Amino acid sequence: MTPRRKQRLIMTIALFVGAIVVIGFSLLALRENINLFFTPSEVNAGDAPPNTSFRMGGMVVSGSIKRIEGSLLVEFDLTDTAETVTVKYAGILPDLFGEGQGIVTQGQLLPDGTFEATQVLAKHDETYMPPEVEHALEKAQKMGF
User: Residues 111-115: contacts with CB within 8 Å, 24+ apart?
Assistant: First the structure.
């Protein structure tokens, strides 16, 4: 093999290995930043990954909002009309948060089965409902719940 061919071969191999490393790091970053969405039915069925942040959406159950006096801690139930999950949130809730409203929460599932939210997003007007929540409610209704 001539020195020139050897140099080209080494350069080609180095570029190939570099491309594999870049693709590997890109896939790793995408995997860590993916935002999974689950309904309360899927969470209760065990489909939600433990110790992983994910989004859960549904409707706030009427009469389920409990505020802890002297703190920002709020506890409420979230349903997709089939199943219900208790959500705990410490923070300021959106102005449009209320009973019977469609919301999306982001957080983790605790070992006791409650969902600890780090973020709560509420709809922005009377007619809007987050697409994930709307599809989950339609799916639950089609299943006969």
Answer: 113/44, 113/85, 113/86, 114/85, 114/86, 114/87, 114/88, 115/43, 115/56, 115/78, 115/85, 115/86, 115/87, 115/88
Letter for the amino acid at 56?
A: M
Considering the domain architecture, whether residues 26 and 42 belong to the same structural domain is answered as no
Assign residue 82 the CATH number of its domain.
Answer: 2.40.50.140
Q: Which H or E element spans position 120? A: strand 115-122
Q: What is the pLDDT of residues 27-71, one digit of tens each?
A: 887 776 677 888 898 888 888 887 888 899 888 998 889 998 888
Q: What's residue 107's pLDDT?
A: 92
